[in-house]
Amino acid sequence: MLAASALLLGLLMLLHAHIPNGWTGNLGSLVETLLPWFGLFVPVLLAGALWRRSAVAMVALLLPVTVWLNLFGGLLGDRSHPGGDLTVAEQNVNAGNPDPAATARALAASGASVLALVELTPQATPLYEKGLAKAYPYDTVQGTVGLWSKLPLSDTRPIDIVDYGPLAATKPAAEKLAANRALRTTVATAHGPLTVFVAHLGSVRLMPRGGFWIASRDTDAQTLGKAIAADPSPRVVLLGDLNGTTDDRALAPVTALLHSAQDTAGDGFGFTWPASFPLVRIDQVLFRGVKPDSSRVLPADGSDHLPVAATISW
Fold first, then answer.
1. CB of 191 closer than 8 Å to CB of 85
2. Rounded distance, CA 117 to CA 196, Å?
3. CA dist 201 to 63, 88, 184, 282, 289, Å?
4. How many CA atoms lie within 13 Å of 184's alpha carbon, on the beta-carbon side?
5. Rg (Cα) of the chain, in Å, rounded?
6. Cα separation of 294 and 79, whole Å?
7. What is the spatial distance between Cα 212 and Cα 272, in angstroms, rounded to a whole number?
8. Cα(262)–Cα(309) distance, rounded to whole angstroms?
9. Where would you tag: which of 58, 148, 152, 292 has the fewest CB atoms within 10 A of its CB?
10. Could you read off the pLDDT of 204-260 as tens digits, one per residue?
């Protein structure tokens, strides 16, 4: 049984892309979201194999160990290096944040030149604007997402990832903007223009009967991916809460176009949610056309998400 369990564990990680969504309650996406944590079963099975003195189980464990290291071994070390021209940061500041002013002060002290915030509310947005005004003279808020910058912004516009299609045309623009969850802008840097997208994809839910509910997030990812694919800018950075990890196949419309700063230049897995005991990285800095020099998770500041930052260069 130990040997069979080890082989099943290895096959599960090896063939995760073949686990179906749809009729399984999106089991495939759920497994991919939690994929790094399947490695915790290895020491449990190893302890059982040692206790039973089972050579067969020990040999069988080579499969999950090899697969896990192949998938995630490269994330165990520090991949960052000194240097960088620009630091960008992002945080889901939590609509129910009890002290937005304190969160704004912590973020202003981060040293980031470009700061993206998502899950803004009409009540809290003025507090963030006030708390960040001194450090960031340029800002834009488009619905529930915003960008604060030490460098000039231009060509700013909302990206409608929620209301689209024929029926959406009948919805008033002001009503659509109030709930807007993505924007696109251009940051004027010393090395030329940098296109920045800020996005907050739809929430996911794990329900007893419905399984892993990801419908709105997946639709938002498809629409955001189309917007990024259609953008001709050679240098693009996406900052946002994607409500999913880069291992999740459902985010392929975005992750097929952009690379993860954490995977490229981070230290460890960089889990961001929940802030009290981070289990997954759903807050992302993704890029194309620039080089990440470092990527890191910043300290907790009152939100239920940890902020993330990355330093990039040209």
1. yes
2. 13
3. 35, 19, 14, 10, 23
4. 19
5. 21
6. 7
7. 20
8. 9
9. 152
10. 999 887 799 999 999 999 999 999 999 999 999 999 999 999 999 999 999 999 999
